[in-house]
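Quick one, tokens below:
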């Protein structure tokens, strides 16, 4: 009998208890790098090939929007070919730009369109239209961008109009966000004068690495990035490593199951992305990093995770932005650790595809977990998971989290299971293969 079974409801799926976890897996190409490789090369001069491009729907939304903006893009399986149009070559779209469920697509495109000299409207699905955009819109307006949206620009759809001038200004971010930083740097490419972005804590630096590789004048001093516009960007080929955020689910499953050994191959280990590795090591997880190497300027390695005895810890501060897309997994880890685990400084999770602080607590509690949501995190105590039905709220990372909880406990029925296609279309088949018959 299959461990992972579709429900009669097309968007629900059942997961049974796993007797053992064994095998090797390759996860999709990194979502963050894929978005940026496509968008930045669209603004470049020349042609670029992007290998191992993410197959998820989010990155497909970025490609669709770029095509509507007049960029020639060819896609063949995991390879994407982009013919750049230069910084001033985007074409005014005849239709609304559909960002689907992708907040990255919408936020980065706002930055790129702020100085592009054309009119465009960006929208998306119901979930995206509820996600806050003021953190992007307010600083872009301060630099001279003309962007309007619902509730004063707080919510999509967003309408971008040609700006008379974009100005180089200093942005002091209140929340550590790689998406905000990236949007402001993209707008800075069109600005009159230097753009400075000062972060309260380090965030993933894929934007900085790629812009420098394309010839941008970008300097880092302390926690401040300075971009001096001028000239053009040259297109560059990109080989995308495996997505650490996707790999994180298998690492957690491997350390938590009592009969497990999982090998995850070709994973990007950019130090601004691997906060969960630090958390796992502090909790006492059995992990090994193998075959460390560098691919296209990004550190890459293979990872091995096997059954572990964990201890509860406190997670907060600057470590949270380095694990923001994986921090929900700490709630699951805490259920199997000795002693209490706490997470603080994670209020940013309320602005994701769902309110992840609430959804994690509700879903794991429905399966018997002792997880209490706080204003900016959770308190987690060791628990024995039972069978139950949980709602992912159509959030891909929540669906995968609850799938792991089902495999580690007594099973789970997960509503909104199809949402995994947003980032990891083969998740269910990989889970079935690793858990066996």
């Amino acid at each position: 009998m299959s461990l992972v079974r579709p429900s009669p409801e097309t968007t629900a799926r059942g997961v049974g208890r796993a007797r053992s976890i064994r095998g090797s897996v390759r996860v999709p190409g990194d979502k963050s790098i894929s978005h940026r490789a496509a968008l930045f090369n669209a603004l470049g001069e020349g042609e670029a090939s992007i290998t191992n491009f993410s197959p998820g729907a989010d990155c497909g939304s970025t490609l669709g929007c770029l095509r509507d903006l007049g960029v020639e893009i060819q896609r063949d399986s995991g390879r994407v070919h982009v013919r750049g149009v230069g910084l001033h070559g985007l074409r005014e779209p005849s239709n609304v730009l559909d960002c689907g469920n992708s907040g990255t697509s919408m936020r980065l495109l706002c930055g790129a369109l702020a100085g592009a000299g054309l009119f465009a409207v960006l929208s998306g699905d119901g979930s995206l239209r509820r996600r806050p955009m003021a953190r992007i819109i307010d600083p872009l307006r301060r630099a001279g961008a003309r962007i309007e949206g619902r509730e004063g620009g707080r919510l999509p759809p967003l309408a971008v109009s040609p700006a008379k001038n974009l100005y180089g200004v200093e942005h002091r971010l209140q929340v550590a966000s790689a998406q905000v930083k990236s949007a402001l740097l993209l707008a800075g490419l069109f600005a009159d004068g230097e753009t400075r972005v000062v972060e309260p804590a380090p965030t993933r630096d894929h934007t900085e690495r790629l812009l420098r590789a394309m010839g941008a004048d970008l300097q880092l001093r302390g926690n401040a990035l300075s971009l001096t516009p001028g000239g053009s960007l040259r297109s560059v080929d990109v080989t995308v490593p495996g997505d650490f955020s996707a790999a994180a689910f298998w690492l957690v499953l491997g350390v938590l199951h009592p009969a497990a050994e999982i090998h995850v191959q070709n994973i990007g280990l950019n130090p601004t992305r691997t906060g969960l590795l630090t958390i796992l090591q502090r909790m006492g997880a059995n992990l090994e990093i193998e075959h460390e190497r560098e691919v296209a300027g990004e550190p890459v390695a293979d990872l091995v995770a096997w059954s572990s005895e964990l201890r509860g810890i406190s997670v907060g501060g600057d470590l949270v932005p380095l694990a923001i897309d994986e921090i929900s997994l700490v709630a699951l880890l805490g259920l199997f650790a000795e002693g209490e685990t706490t997470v603080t400084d994670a209020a940013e999770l309320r602005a994701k595809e769902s309110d992840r602080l609430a959804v994690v607590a509700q879903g794991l509690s429905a399966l018997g977990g002792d997880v209490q949501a706080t204003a900016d995190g959770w308190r987690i105590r060791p628990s024995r998971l039972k069978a139950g039905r949980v709602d992912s709220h159509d959030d891909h990372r929540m669906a995968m989290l609850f799938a792991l909880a089902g495999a580690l406990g007594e099973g789970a029925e997960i509503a909104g299971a199809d949402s995994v296609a947003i980032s990891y279309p083969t998740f269910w088949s990989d889970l079935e293969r690793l858990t066996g018959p």
